[in-house]
Amino acid sequence: MDKYKDWTKEQLLSHIEKLESQTSTNGTATPTTTASGGKPSKKQRKQQRPFDMTKYRQRRIALKVAYLGWNYAGFAAQGDEVNIPTVEDQIFQALGHCRLIVDREHCDYSRCGRTDRGVSGLGQVIILNVRSKQLASDTTNENSQDDLLPATEELTYVDTLNRALPDDIRVLSWAPVAPQLNARFDCRSRTYRYLFRKDQLDLTLMQQAAHDFIGNNDFRNFCKLDPSKNITNYHRRVLKCTIYPFSSTITSLDSVGCRDMVYLELQGTAFLWHQVRCMMSVLFLVGQQLEAPTIVKDLLDTTRYPARPDYPMASDLPLILYDCEFDTITWQNAPPATQRTATHWDQLSYAQHIRALTCDLFLSNTMSGDASAMASIEQSVLDANNKKKVVLGGGSSSLISSYKPLSGRPQCDSDAMKKEKYSARKRKRDQVGQEE
């Protein structure tokens, strides 16, 4: 402060006025010097300049996204990213941070699927308009798609976004697409995989029942009904429903942790809310020989079962949106970006492997010295109180004293009944609102 001690009042006021004139409209001072008295760094000056999206061309692209859904309330944003975190929220935050879009409302966004809470995705596809590397001044017709940059010369969309995304979400590849392409309506098929252990399940019976899902069927008894959406058609076409042994390039777990894993691969044109988890729940009942394989065909017959019997859904943990098929998308896979993504998943896999081995060690220690008890774990269908365990997947099960067949269980409200109740509640809410 010594340099100001000899200044007059007028000089001090003039200096203060000069400093105030350098303050930006948002109240942040535009630095003319650094703390050490020198000029601001290039990074500091760059942060002061607002990004002008209009200087760049826009292009329509598809992104293939992989994510571990365990920590999210589903893929689709629900308007409350703090209390209801979703994968889509994270993607849009990354898109905005990287200055690839202005906001969601102005990028003509579409998604292929709305995976639910806890469900993971390996082949999720989204399509939207993003900023190109190409300047708007480099073309005479901004709306033309003919003179866009070749994909190999574009921005490194994969690496750019992955640097801004959390560890459990990664963009796998991108592709330039036609302006009218829509991720939801132009998808030819969607493929899900559901992982589970063989244990005491009869896979032959499960496959026999799974075959009856194939074709164009009414799946209202294999989904969760939502009267607010006013769905009138519950027919969906299943193209494939097959059980396969699970194979991995990763070393399998040892001792008790090494159990035969299998998965159901389910391919269809579209799916209803919770459809796959309901299908798996019934298949587990068949695999435990609690229901005959013909139960699938019976439940698909809405004259025989006008409403879904009361049964729980299978766990969300093992469910993966494995692939989304399109006719016109050619994915761009740059080897360096692919290698970086592969290394990232390898590191996460290693960490999860350590967690699984730790649980395996705890299990072995708990059962130490009791070989017969250890051997019975895989085969036991009873808990310590001799209650029957009904498999729900993902390590989950329900306990029952005695099994009641689906044919003898109470049925949930039918689609018509749910819609009638929903309409009555809506009329009541509207009436209360008018009175207020």
Report on this model:
Residues 23-39, 397-408 have a biased composition (Low complexity). This protein is α+β, with helices and mostly antiparallel strands. Among the domains are: 53-176, Alpha-Beta Plaits (2-Layer Sandwich), CATH 3.30.70; 189-249 and 259-329, Alpha-Beta Plaits (2-Layer Sandwich). The protein is built from 10 helices and 11 strands. The protein has helices at 9-21, 42-48, 87-97, 157-162, 203-211, 275-287, 295-300, 335-366, 371-376, 415-435, and strands spanning 56-67, 110-111, 120-135, 169-176, 189-197, 215-218, 235-245, 261-268, 319-325, 388-393, 396-400. The strands form 2 sheets. Strands 1, 2, 3, 4, 5, 6, 7, 8 and 9 form a 9-stranded mixed β-sheet that branches. Strands 10-11 form a two-stranded antiparallel ribbon. Strand 10 and strand 11 (396-400) form a beta hairpin. Mean pLDDT is 86; it is low at 23-36 and 252-258.
